[in-house]
Amino acid sequence: MISSAHVSIASEIEITSWLASVAARFSSSDQALLKKALEYVLQRYGGQCLSSGETVMRHTLGTASILAALKVDIDTLVAGILHAIPDYPDDYVNQLQSDFNLTVGHLVKGMARVGRIGHIKALGFRNDASRHVTQVEALRKMLLAMAEDIRVVIITLASRVQTMRYVVSIDISERLDIALETMDIFAPLANRLGLWQVKWELEDLSFRIIDLAQYKKIARLLEETRVSREQYIDSIVAKLQSVLLQAGIRATVNGRPKHIYSIHKKMQRKNLDFGQIYDARAVRILVGDVPDCYAALGVVHSLWTPVPKEFDDYIARPKSNGYRSLHTAVAGLEDKVVEIQIRTHEMHRFSELGVAAHWRYKEGSTRDARYEEKIAWLRQILEWKDDVSDGGELADHFKTALFEDSVYVLTPQGNVIALPKGATPLDFAYHVHTDLGHRCRGAKVDGIMVALNYQLQNAQKVEILPAKSGGPSRDWLNDAPGYLKSARARTKVRQWFNHQAFKTTLAQGRAMVEKLLQRHGVTAISLDKLAAKFDFLRPNGFFMAVAKGEISQRQLETELTGREPSAITQPDTLIDKKALIRPVSQQSSGDILINGVSGMLSVLAKCCKPVPPDPIIGFVTRHGRGISIHRHDCLNMPQLLRKNADRKVAAEWGATYDKVFPVDVEIRAQDRQWLLRDISEILSRETVNAIAMNTQTRRGMTNIQLTLEVKEMKQLSRVLSSLKKLSGVTVTRRKNQ
Predict the structure, then answer these.
(1) pTM for this structure?
(2) CB-CB contact of 241 with 296 (8 Å)
(3) Bigger pLDDT: 582 or 319?
(4) Is 358 in contact with 351 (CB distance < 8 Å)?
(5) Which of 325, 405, 428, 591 has the lowest tally of Cβ within 10 angstroms?
C-alpha cells in the first residue's frame, strides 16, 4: 500500500511536470483533456508494467513526449496517452468514446488491432534472406492496412521509440528480438513516411543492441554525440542561409547528421573505410529553378574548399531512375567534411515522392508502383499537417483507405500472405499451393470453422482442411456464392477442369485407335510412327485429333491397309460426316435426304419422334450412330446446338417412303366401362398399330399414353379426331406438341 502511494505521488508529479512542458502548444481546454487522459491511465494502470517491464506511466509519458515533438493533433496525443492499456476490456471503445470522443476511441481501437502484430514473428526466416525480405515487407504493409488511420501508425512508431529507449538501458532476454523487429518493420515504416527523426533513433537504438561493438567503434570515430552533430549541422545551415540570402538566392536549407547506423550501412554497401564517408554530415539546399542550383553551388564553393573528386552533376546527367541533383562535399566549419545536395523544389518532390524515392534507394527494395503511390500520398498528408492550424481539417485524409484493396492474413506457421480485398479461404488455399486449393474441403479462421466463402480480415490466421484426394467444384466458379475473389485462383480451377476434359478426350482417342488396330491385327505397330504419318510429333496430339474427328476412320484405314475402305463395309465407329453409311435398318428413318443426299445413316430422335411431313433437322452424333433426325420444334435442339452448332445438317423427307413411324399420343377421358375397347376399334379401323400403352386412373379421370405406328401425319390426325369424338374423352393430342 505504501509502495502504491509512492508510485501515485511520483506519477502525479511527473504528470504535472509533463503538462507544464507542453502547455504553450495547447489551449486550456486541450490541456484539461490531456490531464484527464493521464489521470485516467494513472488511476487504472499506474502501478502496472508492460511485457517489456516498463511501467505503464513511464511508457505513457515517454510516448506522449515523442508525439508532442511530432506536433500531432490533440486527439492523436490523447490516444497516444491511452494506447498502452495492458488489457483492453470488452467495452473499452464505447467507454473511451463516452469519456473522451469518437476519434480517440477509434484511434485506440486501431492501436489494439495493430498490437496483434506483436504476436507475429517474421524473424524465423533470417537464414533465408529472400523469404525474410518478403515476410517483413508483407508485415509492414499489413500494419498499414490494419491501422486504417495513419495516426495509428504514428502512435505505434512513437510507442516503439519509447520502448527502444527503455530496453536499450536494461538487460532483458527479449531485447534482441525487439531490436530486430524494430529494424525490420518499424524503422523502414518511419523512413517511408518521412518521419526522419523517428527513423534515425529507431535504427541507432536497435543497432546499439544488435552490434554493440561496431556501434561503439563508429561512435568513437565520429568523436561526437548525436546532439553535438546536430548542433554542428544547425550552425552550417545558419551560415548557408545567411550567405545565400546575401547573394540574392531564395533557398530553403535543411540538414541532418548521418546517424551511426546509416554510416555503418554505407560502409558495408560501398565497401568504404570511415575516412571515405563524406556525408556523415549532410545539408540540402532547395531553390526555385535550375540556374539557382548552379548559383548556389558557386556560393558554397566560394565559402568552403571543395573535396576533390566528390562533385556529381545529376542535373546534367540524371540517374537512370530520373533522380536529379547536384552533390558536392566541402571542408566546412572546423574543417569537418560536409556533403551538400542542391536541387529545385520540383526535383525534391520527385525524389521524395516519385520513382526516385529515397526510401526505396536506401532499403534496396524492388518497385511496387501502386504501393509507392500510396506511400507518397501518406507522406504528403504528414507534410500538410504542419501547415494546418486545425488538425480536424485533415481527419478524412488520415484514413488509410488507400490500403483497402488488400487483406493480409497468416498461415499456421505465421507467414504473411497478401490477398485481394474480399478474399476467401479458397483464395488463401490456392495462393499457398494449387493442389491444396483443389483438395480444400473446409477452413478454420483463428481456430473457428468458417464457410469457404467467408471473407477474410487482416491478421487472421487461416488453416485449410484438405481431403486426401479430389478436385474443385464447378460451383466455385459461380459468382453468386462468392467462393473465389482472385483471378489467379479462378484460373487454376478452370485449368483443372480443362485438364480433366483433356484426359477424357485423350483416353477416348487412344481407345478408338487401339480398337481399329486390333480389328486389322496390327497392334504391334509403333504409335509414334503412326502419329508421325499424320504430322504429329507425339501420340497424344494424334489421339486428340482422332477423338475430335479431325482424323477419320477412313483416313486411318487407308494408312494402315494402303487401300480405300469400302463404304458398305465401313464399321460404325469413327464416322466421317461426308462418307456414305451402310444401308438403313428397320430402326433407321427410311428415305431421308441429308444435304440432299439419300442413303445416309440416320435415326429418328426418341425425344420428339418426327413423322412425315413434320419439318425436320439433322444432328451428327458421335460414336458412329449416324445422324439423329429431330423435329424443327424439338425442345432439345437449342441445347444441343448451343455447344455444337457445327454438327447441324439440313434434312428433309424423301420423295417416297413406305415405312411406319412411332409417335406418342396422350388421351384424357372420364373413367368409364368399355373405354379401351372403343379406342381399340378406332385404331383397328384406321389400321394403326399400338406398340406401347400406359394407363393411370385418378379421381375418376383416366390418362392413357399410347405409342402408335403411323405412315403419315394425315393418318395420325384422323385417329386423333376420331378418338376425340368418343364419349367422355376430353383431350387427344400428340405429345411434345
Answers:
(1) 0.52
(2) no
(3) 319
(4) yes
(5) 405
